[in-house]
Predict the 3D structure of the following.
Amino acid sequence: MSNLSGKSCLEKLACLIPGYGGYLEKERRHDVDKLHREHLAQELEKLKNPLTSLVRELSETGRLVEIKPIERANGKVDKVANRIRYASYGYSGFFDTVKIQDSDLDRLYQFDLGLTEDIDTIKAKASSLAENTTADSLKNATSTLESALDDLDARFSERNKAIENIL
C-alpha cells in the first residue's frame, strides 16, 4: 500500500480494481481525441468570418463573378470542419483497454501535429485572399485554398486509417 501514498482517491481506486486503470486510460484517450478534433474544427471555422467579409466586400463593389469560388471554399471549410468534429468512432478499438505501443501513439501524434500545421497553412492562405486585387489572382488564390482544404480532408482520412492499422 505504500506505493499508493500521495495519489488521489481515484488513482488509488484505479490501482486496486483490476481493469479500472485501463478503463480510465481508455476514457482519457477518447476525451483527448474529442478535444483535439473540436479544437481543429474551431480553428477551421475561424476562417468563415474573413471569407464572408470578402464575399460582402466583393458584392458591395460589384465583383459578383468572383464570389462563387469563395463561397465554394467556405462550403469546404464547413464540410471539413464538420467531418473532423463529428468523426465516427468506428475505430473504437483505439479506445479499448488494449495497450497501445508508444511508437503507434507517436505516429498518431505526428498526424495530429500535421493536421494542426495544415490548418495554420490554410489560415494563412485564407488571410491572404483579400490581398488579391485582380479577378484572376483571386481565382488562383481561392483555388489554392480549396486544394489545401482537400489535402487536409485527405490527411484526416489517413489519420483514421492509421488508427485502424494500430488495431
Helices lie at 9-16, 20-45, 48-60, 67-85, 102-127, 135-166. The mean pLDDT is 82.
